[in-house]
Amino acid sequence: MDNSSATGGKYSTQAMVDGVDRPTPNHDTIHQHKGLRTGELVLRAGALLLTLAAAIVLGINKQTKTVPVQIISTMPPVNVPVSAKWHYLSAFTFFVVCNAIACAYAFFSLLLALIGKKGAAAATVILDLLTVALLFAGNGAATAVGLIGYKGNSHVRWNKVCNVFDRFCHQVAAALGLSLVGSVLFVLLVLVAVVRLHRKY
């Protein structure tokens, strides 16, 4: 019987190593492995850039507006300069920290992927999952506060502020979009790892 048919098509030839016949992966298997590795590198580079951009976009976000304030009802309102900055809200601070951590992890994991260190594969999958959870937590917290700023809350008499600080809110929305796409890339990295394990075993 032909050696290639005995191996079920997964291996095409037999290589003699240390006096023992060992199967050699065929061209399709090697091509698929290279494709997965290239996809992983692209996804990690994309996640690195997106989380870095999200942290920077919100981290430099601030806007100052002159707002009329009514001190006494019998007197005209007084114009007061009011500033909106990202670190005034703990949810936005948490968001920036989450994206900074994800960016740093993406950088180091990209280095490991470029080096081709196989021993760190299992740890990388676990850290990818933790990064997904971290990013979704940061995105959820920032989105909740952003919606309050955009719509307000009549039940607790919280007025909306995005009608005043429009540029600030637009920048928050842009940062959320970047971070959300970065989160999706980390999810895809986990799926790539699952596919790789499935084909290996």
Automatic annotation (TrEMBL):
This is CASP-like protein. Keywords: Cell membrane, Membrane, Transmembrane, Transmembrane helix. Belongs to the Casparian strip membrane proteins (CASP) family. NCBIfam families: A_tha_TIGR01569. It is found in: Cell membrane. Homodimer and heterodimers. Pfam families: CASP_dom. It comes from the Eukaryota. The chain crosses the membrane at residues 41-60, 86-114, 126-150, 170-195. GO terms for cellular component: plasma membrane.
